Amino acid sequence: MTFSLQSPAPLQEGDLVTIVSPSSRIDKELVRGQKERLESWGLKVTIAPHALDTDGNFAGTTAHRLKDFQSGMDDDSVRALFCSRGGYGAVHLLDAIRFDRFRLSPKWLIGFSDITVLHNLYQREGFISVHGVMARHLAMESPEDPQTLALRQLLFTGVSPTYKLPTHKLNLFGTAKGILRGGNLSVFYGLRGTPFDLPCEAEDTILVLEDVGERPYHVERMMYNLELAGILSRLRGLVVGQFTDNDDQPIGDLVDKSIRRSIYQLIYDFVKPYGYPVCFNFPVGHTSQNAPLLLGSEVVLSVGKNETFLASSTLKNVDNEK
C-alpha cells in the first residue's frame, strides 16, 4: 500500500530559516559558518536561542532544545529547520513534539545521523524531510562542494537529484519503485518496537542504511533484528551507504576477524535470497560524500551490471552525476 507524504514548498531567496540543535552540543564557529553558507544562498538565517548552549554533551537542556525546535516548527515565517549536528539527544524530544501548527505551514527539516529520530517522526506524521549535511560540512567544505550544491538545488527546487554511480561487486541487480526511508541504522534500530519505529509498510519501502563507529558484529545483530521482524523480506529495495569507523574511515569492505566478514558482505548475505535490487557503496553517511536524500519520497532504484541510479519516480529529476 503506497501513500503520498506532504513535501514543503521549495525555498526561495529571502526566505527565513533557522538553525537548531536538537542533539549534541556544537562548536559555535561551525554554526556561524553554517549560517554564513546559508546566507550566501540568499536566505535569511536565525540561530535558535539555545542552539549554542551546553548541558553536558547536549546542546542545552531537554526543555531548551524542545522549545527551540517546537518554536521553529510553529513559526509561520520560518521555511526550514537546519540541524547543526547529530550525536545523541533528539530522542529526548520525540514524545513532546507537536504538529498542530506545523501542519498549517510545513517546512523543511535537514540533518542526518541522530536526526534520523526526527525523520522517523516526520514521516509518521506524513511529511517528507531531507537526510543531508549539517554545520561541519557546510562550514568547512568549499562553496562549490558537490554535496553542498546538491542540497541547495534540492531545497530550492523541491526535487531530488538523480544519482548515478558505478557498480559494486556485491550489488544485486533489478529495478524497483518505493518510498525511501531509513538513515542511521543504530538510531532507527533504537526505536524498533516503539510508536516511532520505521513508519512504513515494508512492502512499500526502499530502505537506506548508513552508520559510524559500529563494528561488524554489532551491525549483524541489528540486521538480525530486521530479519527476524520480517522487515528485510518485505522490502522493495535496499541502498547501503557508508559504514565508517570513529575516524570516519570506510570499514564497509574490511573483514572483521570475529565474524570473518565485512559489513557489506554480511548485509549481502542477509538480503541475497529476496531478489530485490541492492546497491552498495552509495555516497551517503558520515563522510564528505554525503548526498542529500528526500526521505519519505517515492523513488526508483535501478541496479544494473554497469551502472546504478536512484531517482525520483516523477519525471522532474535534476541530474547529479556521481
**Class by SSE composition:** alpha/beta
What is the total tally of β strands? 14
- Looking at CATH, the homologous superfamily of the largest domain is LD-carboxypeptidase A C-terminal domain-like
Number of helices: 9
The CATH architecture category of the largest domain equals 3-Layer(bba) Sandwich
Main beta-sheet strand count, sense and barrel state = 8 strands, mixed
Helix content: 25-40%
Biggest sheet strand line-up: 10-9-8-7-12-13-6-14
CATH topology name of the largest domain, in short, is Glucose Oxidase, domain 1
Note the beta-strand portion: 15-25%
What is the CATH class designation of the largest domain?
Alpha Beta
Order of helices and strands, N to C? EHEHEEHEHHEEHEHHEHEEEEE
Question: What would the principal axes of the Cα set say about the shape?
Answer: globular
Textual characterization of the structure:
- The chain has helices spanning 28-40, 62-74, 116-124, 135-140, 146-157, 185-189, 216-228, 231-234, 263-271; strands spanning 16-20, 44-47, 78-83, 108-111, 129-131, 161-166, 174-184, 205-212, 237-244, 278-279, 293-295, 298-303, 307-312, 318-321.
- It is of the alpha/beta class and 322 residues long.
- The protein has 2 domains: 16-157, Rossmann fold (3-Layer(aba) Sandwich), CATH 3.40.50.10740; 161-321, LD-carboxypeptidase A C-terminal domain-like (Glucose Oxidase, domain 1), CATH 3.50.30.
- The protein has an 8-stranded mixed beta sheet. Strands 2-1-3-4-5-11 form a 6-stranded mixed beta sheet, with helices on both faces.
- Strand 1 (16-20), helix 1 (28-40) and strand 2 (44-47) form a beta-alpha-beta unit.
- The two termini are 32 Å apart.
